[in-house]
Amino acid sequence: MLDYQHLAILREVDRSGSVTAAAERLNVSQSALSHMIRKVEERYGVKLWLKQGRGLRFTQAGEYLLGLAQRVLPQMEHAERVLTDFAQGRRGALRAGMECHPCQRWLMRLTPRYLAAWPDVDLDVRTAFRFDGVAALLGHEIDLLITPDPVDLPELLFTPVIDYELVLVVHEAHPLARRDWATPPDLLDEVLITVPVGVERLDIYTQFLVPGQCRPRQHRTAETTDLMLQLVAARRGVSVLPDWLVREEGAQLPIRAVRLGKGGINKSINLGVRRGEEGIAYIAGFLSLAQELEVKADPSADWS
Amino acid sequence: MLDYQHLAILREVDRSGSVTAAAERLNVSQSALSHMIRKVEERYGVKLWLKQGRGLRFTQAGEYLLGLAQRVLPQMEHAERVLTDFAQGRRGALRAGMECHPCQRWLMRLTPRYLAAWPDVDLDVRTAFRFDGVAALLGHEIDLLITPDPVDLPELLFTPVIDYELVLVVHEAHPLARRDWATPPDLLDEVLITVPVGVERLDIYTQFLVPGQCRPRQHRTAETTDLMLQLVAARRGVSVLPDWLVREEGAQLPIRAVRLGKGGINKSINLGVRRGEEGIAYIAGFLSLAQELEVKADPSADWS
DNA sequence: AGCATCCATGACTTCTACTCATCGATGTAT
DNA sequence: ATACATCGATGAGTAGAAGTCATGGATGCT
Q: How far apart are CA B278 and CA A70, in angstroms?
């Protein structure tokens, strides 16, 4: 077996110029190096170096192995550093999955900061909205679930990172714009614009329209939230979005946000990880960055 | 120490899908693999795989090392094959040095055959004419010396591969063309064309002109033998070359070869190697190919 | 000529690496 | 549902590898 060690010996002998010096640098006896190389030589039936006067001269086979050593050893040594990086959680791949559009928007605010803070961590984002996030987390398909619906399982740990309110977005000249809050019947004559997912995944249906036994006149979809806001600003309909998202992206538009029902629809985004992994440095780092973000978002909450 | 072995284990576990299967394929016990990996894990403080049900799941660190293994192991395995090639003399670098121009011409006839017969041998040709070939051979700068002047040393072994005669080349209309042989005074009024080396290395001087105490009217040089022949054909002068070389390259030219002195200047090309290395396969192969070439060249020796 | 230093080698020792036996966990067949 | 088969992990014991020490031959330097 040609081994890491043998390559290291060859490289060091080449660097130091003698077996004795190499042995000293590698913290073994000169005899040990001689024995090791001798073994390789016997194994393959080829000399790696020859005594030349008081020193050595590499044979062609020795030169060849020396070249291999110089190519391979740096890779191995780098791998050792990478391993300790993994051990200390400085390196990894954080695979995040999301179950809702607002979650994705929220994540996008965090990513630049996270990538800057954890340069050796790959952030993979799974934006498949149809999958079961909890199952993906349990099955190790993802390492982090960003979801509005935490579940209570012993294997998982959920942390809320932001509370928000789902609001109705209307044009500023819309009759509803002056109202304190909207009722389900208010939407009977409206065009409702949502992201393109099944109604069973839309809170506006499950928590508002269905309980109020109402349906909008028309339901259409838009792929992105800024398109949704543009459509509302163009009086093509009304939409439902997180309050902070309207605040951030709709500041310059002629739109208003209206509470849905008297108490509003209150949601939160939660980060789910497998229990036991919350301490891994780059995951813990994500959670703490997420909580910093929440704090910063809070002060401007009274946007009305 | 991250080792060849560990990488091999990871790769085999990945291939076989289980530690037990991998152990069997690697001819060790399942326990041994477990222990080895455990040791690496303890060394670096990072798990490489986790029990998942009855099987395993690689961690990110494990995946990383697996990737390393797939890059590095093929190189190591190739190196092992190369070593056995070296051991059997199927592979090497044959560094040939030459001390004379005819030697180089002669070598060129052999190279295509040699390269075809020994595909894994690199043939390096040192065409530095100023160096001391014997010293280069003794100092392991070259492995093969092609020279007209063998020396008798216990460390070296010389083998003649071709005997030839150094002849004067003149235009077919030149008065000397009808002569059986030329004398030194015949050159007193000639332009002598030789390769550009010092006169002390030119046999025409050391063995003919100097003993005869004559000098040509003019001495000029040409870089290549075919240029020399072209110049002779154009009546720009006379030249001195090996008979076989004139035969091969000058067949279509209006030139004649004339013996130098009554007995001619007889030379031979010898191959010198360090004693003990004549048995190395790719060196022995060179010598035997060289002798075949000699035999083939012989029949047409009476070219006149 | 004498000395210092190089690498190779044999004998001895230490400790590593492996096997064996067993355990708990998990998936499967009855 | 329960027994069984099979997986990987682990502790103890052992065979063998790897390392040290002491020494010898060769070479270069003073």
A: 31
